[in-house]
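Researcher: Here's the sequence for the chain we discussed earlier.
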Amino acid sequence: MVVVTFINVVLRYGFNTGLIWGLELVTFLFAWLILFGVSYAVKTSAHLGVDALLNITSGRLRRLFVFASVAFCVIYAALLLKGAWDYWANFANLPQTTGRWFPTGFEDMRRTSYRAWYEVIDIPFPEFLRWIEPLMNEGETYEKLPRFIPYAMLPVGAALLLYRFVEVGLALSRGESRGLIVSHEVEQEVEDLKHAAKEE
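Model: Thanks. This is the structure I predict for it:
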């Protein structure tokens, strides 16, 4: 992402030209970065949150609030996964889910449901992916990258997010974690590091 942006800046300001596909590629890569980053931040407890209510409670009530917040996060991630799948599926010649907000099955695919022929605007189709054409585009050649490739990160990112929230819920139930967000644990770790540095 940084390399493509750097090359594009040099070409634009140094040679009055540029990579016509550079902006679109960087946009897709940035979206991938965000969707990977969201689930990674859940894994490392790097998300910020408001814990004022948790700080005035203790014991069972605190644990109940933490489990409720994890349950809401799991529901949110599941809804996000359904929406992401439904948006991406037809671009990949796959069926969308049925049901308005809860998936109750898969829709029947009609001949008009297939949309793998949709391409992105500027990114050229790489030659090493020509094997995809008979599988996805009925043997027709792609001039640009098909949309199902960059859009695949939508369901993948939502599935990773759901997996991480379930993982946090299991860690909470086993007593391996006390919360979902970064709160005052970071402040405690900083204090511990200060004391360790003073002792050395």
